[in-house]
């Protein structure tokens, strides 16, 4: 009653043993594909972590520089500005990691939060009553009065260009892991399971436990079994080309490091622009939001002290070099894996599975 290992000669197999063999080949095939995938997956996962660490390091660096701007140049609002600055960099980090948000909404939300502080602490430092309603009115007015001139829009443009490639790369790497995980658990058809049993275990039914499949026979069986997986070849090659394009984009004109480092300067220019146009802004705001309570006598207006760019170039250069090295190393490795899915049958038939240097091997029917 054997279904697979039918042979004219006497056999030591039963139908139950054939079923066990089918379970064994399914398990072994999954394990051998997992072993092939391991290095590739390990490399991608390692670089997802490395890129994310590099992104976080650059974001922290840029956040610290932006915070120090308020502490050195705009002390009256430094404490209250800490939260909007933190929110801005959290939003940018989430954007890079693929969250449903945009650079524009993050930057404009930051400037919405910043305007009430600039208005009440720098432009009109005598304001004492900054009620919730008045603050909200200032936030909403920001969009109409455009106190920060072109600087808020420029910041959106600069960051959108540079963060886009980082976001896409982050998503592409996660997609790569998904593809590999899916191929590991690709179900084997019944025909494939039977062909693998015939190739690997039917010789055992005749007591031939040391004989191994012939190379050509193994390749035919594996190619048939893995036809659906090897169909990924064209898409995988295209995927590698996309990764190459994205890593080049990150390194070229859309330089993430420069854009993040430039946030401090953009914010400084935006605040200076608002201060210079203080009288016009006050006139408009008074019409829209009404006049807030003022403290007797104006506070000293020595707040307009544009800060000179701090030279923390060393940290930036190191972060930049580290990210560039990771990009290069990663893309060189991935280029070598271009033929991964095209050559999967050959790789599975390599090694212990087949008879390489022997004159006899198993061809599915007999020893030849």
UniProtKB/TrEMBL annotation:
Membrane topology designation:
Lipid-anchor; GPI-anchor
Source domain of life: Eukaryota
Q: Does this UniProt record's set of keywords contain Membrane?
A: yes
Question: InterPro entries from the xrefs?
Answer: Glypican, Glypican_CS
Q: Can you quote a single GO CC term?
A: cell surface
GO BP: cell migration; positive regulation of canonical Wnt signaling pathway; regulation of protein localization to membrane
Keyword set for this entry?
Answer: Cell membrane, Glycoprotein, GPI-anchor, Heparan sulfate, Lipoprotein, Membrane, Proteoglycan, Signal
> Where is it localised?
Cell membrane
Which Pfam families does the entry link to?
Glypican
Entry similarity comment: Belongs to the glypican family.
The task this protein performs is described as: Cell surface proteoglycan.
What is the name attached to this protein's record? Answer: GPC5 protein
Q: Which gene encodes it?
A: Gpc5_0
